[in-house]
UniProtKB/TrEMBL annotation:
This is DUF5615 domain-containing protein. InterPro entries: DUF5615. It holds the Pfam family DUF5615. Residues 1-58 form the DUF5615 domain.
């Protein structure tokens, strides 16, 4: 499975998912920590990734 971790998700979670054989990336890894919520969702959709977020106000 492919995952995209939002800033509220620990990079350790991404490391763990990768250790299980998943393709997980964190926004911070790509220098995208200031990306807007709609752009984050668009990125996940474009890349076929499941978005992981802990943002209660994610639109």
């Amino acid at each position: 499975m492919k995952f995209l971790a939002d800033m509220g998700i620990s990079p350790r979670t991404v490391t763990f998912l990768n250790s299980l054989g998943h393709d997980a990336i964190h926004l911070r890894e790509q220098g995208l920590e200031h990306l807007s919520d709609p752009d984050i969702l668009y990125k996940a959709l474009e890349e076929g990734r499941i978005l992981l977020t802990h943002d209660l106000e994610f639109r």
